[in-house]
Amino acid sequence: xxxxxxxxxxxxxxxxxxxxxxxxxxxxxxxxxxxxxxxxxxxxxxxxxxxxxxxxxxxxxxxxxxxxxxxxxxxxxxxxxxxxxxxxxxxxxxxxxxxxxxxxxxxxxxxxxxxxxxxxxxxxxxxxxxxxxxxxxxxxxxxxxxxxxxxxxxxxxxxxxxxxxxxxxxxxxxxxxxxxxxxxxxxxxxxxxxxxxxxxxxxxxxxxxxxxxxxxxxxxxxxxxxxxxxxxxxxxxxxxxxxxxxxxxxxxxxxxxxxxxxxxxxxxxxxxxxxxxxxxxxxxxxxxxxxxxxxxxxxxxxxxxxxxxxxxxxxxxxxxxxxxxxxx
Amino acid sequence: xxxxxxxxxxxxxxxxxxxxxxxxxxxxxxxxxxxxxxxxxxxxxxxxxxxxxxxxxxxxxxxxxxxxxxxxxxxxxxxxxxxxxxxxxxxxxxxxxxxxxxxxxxxxxxxxxxxxxxxxxxxxxxxxxxxxxxxxxxxxxxxxxxxxxxxxxxxxxxxxxxxxxxxxxxxxxxxxxxxxxxxxxxxxxxxxxxxxxxxxxxxxxxxxxxxxxxxxx
Amino acid sequence: xxxxxxxxxxxxxxxxxxxxxxxxxxxxxxxxxxxxxxxxxxxxxxxxxxxxxxxxxxxxxxxxxxxxxxxxxxxxxxxxxxxxxxxxxxxxxxxxxxxxxxxxxxxxxxxxxxxxxxxxxxxxxxxxxxxxxxxxxxxxxxxxxxxxxxxxxxxxxxxxxxxxxxxxxxxxxxxxxxxxxxxxxxxxxxxxxxxxxxxxxxxxxxxxxxxxxxxxxxxxxxxxxxxxxxxxxxxxxxxxxxxxxxxxxxxxxxxxxxxxxxxxxxxxxxxxxxxxxxxxxxxxxxxxxxxxxxxxxxxxxxxxxxxxxxxxxxxxxxxxxxxxxxxxxxxxxxxxxxxxxxxxxxxxxxxxxxxxxxxxxxxxxxxxxxxxxxxxxxxxxxxxxxxxxxxxxxxxxxxxxxxxxxxxxxxxxxxxxxxxxxxxxxxxxxxxxxxxxxxxxxxxxxxxxxxxxxxxxxxxxxxxxxxxxxxxxxxxxxxxxxxxxxxxxxxxxxxxxxxxxxxxxxxxxxxxxxxxxxxxxxxxxxxxxxxxxxxxxxxxxxxxxxxxxxxxxxxxxxxxxxxxxxxxxxxxxxxxxxxxxxxxxxxxxxxxxxxxxxxxxxxxxxxxxxxxxxxxxxxxxxxxxxxxxxxxxxxxxxxxxxxxxxxxxxxxxxxxxxxxxxxxxxxxxxxxxxxxxxxxxxxxxxxxxxxxxxxxxxxxxxxxxxxxxxxxxxxx
Lengths: 328, 217, 716
Description:
CATH topology of the largest domain in chain C: Aldehyde Oxidoreductase, domain 4
Low-confidence stretches of chain A: none
Number of domains of chain C: 3
Strand content of chain C: 25-35%
Mean pLDDT of chain C: 97
Helix content of chain A: 25-40%
Number of helices of chain C: 18
Strand order of the largest sheet of chain A: 4-5-10-8-9
Low-confidence stretches of chain C: none
Shape of chain C: flat
Largest sheet of chain C: 7 strands, mixed
Shape of chain A: globular
Number of strands of chain A: 14
Strand order of the largest sheet of chain C: 3-5-1-12-9-10-11
Radius of gyration of chain C: 28 Å
Oligomer: heterotrimer
Radius of gyration of chain A: 19 Å
Distance between the termini of chain A: 41 Å
């Protein structure tokens, strides 16, 4: 790890003031599990690290009927998991936390960090840059791409979005509040993510001197939601693919649906095709199967990750069936 | 960078306020002192960066305040092991994956390899050494011995700490809960069979002790 | 043999031997008090760090350490491989630095400038045609017995042909390789080393540093895993010592995790095209294999296939493939896990082709195993079948029930030598009653300390805690390195001999006081008493007080008088798995290990070896692979996130049965570290094939490979 100066402001505004206007100068420290690992690998070398840990009003999980859930970006996964309102109204979020099989990460990891962690692409982590360039070429297409993207992978980004929480939160129509020097803005969570097209761009639309302050999840009455992740190990491990499903039901019919995939594309992949396959249908094994198929209908696997197409199809099917049973 | 910066890399010239640094330190001649339960968070004028050179950091470890001069980049694990000689927590993956470095931060389990020492200021750090003070083994440690839940032993302190933390939240766990609950630690020798038996047994012992009114941990 | 005074006590006369005894250093480990090499902090100690090659094959054209030398805290720099040297694998050592903190050392490494001329490299050997096209192959051996061609042509034989493989995996020791080293005089070195060979390391340091071997002290009280990879001082050990010399300070350097994965751990791969034949009744008649594998740039072991079974007509060819990956090191049961899978998987496939239960096929052919093993295997197969509920759960290939989870069973057997190594035990009984055993051995976590204590205590009729065991320091008498399951046989025998002699000396000293001839005395229950008259007795302390202030000191050796150990064990592993045919995920329901290892000293730590081996076996069967990149030449998973070790919820139910009693105990003590880790790969692979009806040809059995296999056939 290179040397850096450490700042731990106590207010949101101070935090923003400590952040540089360009990427690379400063990094935000939330739970730290990703950023410190990147710094140890010299993948990130900020001159200053701005810890958000002492900003009290970034913590906490609040629920208000009619408004829904308000999660401070520094709320830990454990806070979310044990919150009684989350357990009652958003059980899929509890399930999502439990996919991360590490009580240590539950204590350390924050919801903001889960959304803003950087990709696990091994070329990126070995220092070849987010777009994994080597001698002028992209590494993943001809290299070892077993864990890379199968959707949205026309290049030059081939990594996958690693966030465990982004898919379910997007499926639940969450919005995210950001604070920058000129004030705050609130955007749909999916707008926080973008596919970089050239070196220097990031996979987040967050500005370098912005912080995520809150995640706002609308009331989930009448929604059936579920997550399904396919992991090699039962213990702590990165998913090979993940699906989050939120279904607005009318009687037994799907009125609207969102199906969001994780670990398959450079962004959390909001599958219109899968959603379309569900709307107006009565849930059944066949309908779930059709949704799974639709989710991967546009998949363009690389040389070694064709299996992820099948896994994603199954993850969607299982998430839909789980949601059909009334959710998590 | 346009934001204001700390005053530079030299030791002790960061903008930490001497006031709060000294708050609990009035009697500190040996570098070790006892402070009250409610150790305040560092309250230096906020917004001012410290480092990148060494800055004074006070850590509260197993109930004792320890003062160190550390660069902000020093992890809690390195501070414990290299500076303080508290070596129960081990460095293995060094990337928040294997759990060998598990300590408690305000009673919650964390990977000490991925917490900065400076972040731990104002929080209670509990290491495995705390749980065998006076040579008495914690029930979890005893169960690890009885069930041979250890071979080379390098992952063992991390597993013991993870188990203690787990049992706090799951005093009467099922086998499945134990298995999943300890999924954030890794062992290479393959001691998991003994570990799951040990944790189940420790749960029983600790519950019985609790009912009997004695205090553990 | 019964007349030999050192012989192990017979059944009924064993106080502690064979009992389940908790390891004596358990409390130190579970409380975190145990100090490992990584935990050593010496006064004024500097921290090492190493610049490593980012290229798999390159010539060094420039090294500039001048900027690093000026950095704060940097006290020493040593170029390990300078201009002109040809690097053969990424991660190889180029410059080692010593500085006042680990961070400062790493900063210095970052400031060193090295220029390389890149050279062509080759890092993936799974495809033999590609290996040959790249001119990376070297024929290594050919072995022919009988007349395979004729046997394959025999009328009515059933022939199976297939391709199988086991990739390179790493040792992934949790405590990295390394040393904390100081000079205690101009030619005197003391080093704390994470090693499997406390007594062997002084020679290596002495030679590398040109000092007398007797001036080197190696200390290793606790070590965090070796698995065969920690027999050498290694280049970083030599340079850590040199930096300590340069700086006049102790220097500690343990490998960073990425380096540990890249350069300090490599089990050679093994791939094979196999053809095997049997008569319709399952009698194996012929074998032919074309086998290849890599152990890095140099040669690796030749895989002894067909494994265990001497099929009467057989031919095997082995080809080395040289690659630019970190060089191979012995990995728990060298060559055996690979050979086992490359044999037992094709036999299982042949059984399927014969419509035969594979257990029956193994039973039928067990006699092809050398010496007495056939009998052992048959008994063990029977036991394993019982514990795995084989007759209830086994079905012909491909579970036909509906649903996406398919259950299957698989079985395999294995062998290992495990004869005790050279061992010397210096044994003392003090006039105050204390008992001390000193051996230059080491406890890798296998329970060596405990075994020594149990043998000594059993011999003297004392509780385990009455014995002080001193190991882990080369100042103690020479003992063999802990490899190949040789330690327990070595230390138990030397300790037994020393303890018997010491006990007999004590008998001689107290005989007059008791008025009983020395040869009529026994040591039991903390007393010395007359064999036929328990009223004539002295407590242990009283007895030792009769020594008149002189301590008894004896030396026990191995090898030595009386047969106290032998070699050649058999073991069987059965696996019970469920495969999700939609996702390709394999989950372990149950693993059964049935193992023979002669006379067991401590049942608890013996079983731990088997449980651990099953778990390690699950890991290398399902998750582990050193993934090398064809474009950059680097290891892509030099961490513990994507180099996936088995985790706690992955292991299923584990059942271990030790073969003991008549027919087993008489063989004396035999090592156990290696054997149970051999078969899990084959057993799990076979179980998966049984579940889904088709073979996943190579380990690890990932979802990707299961789905690919299913696409070619099977039950899905």
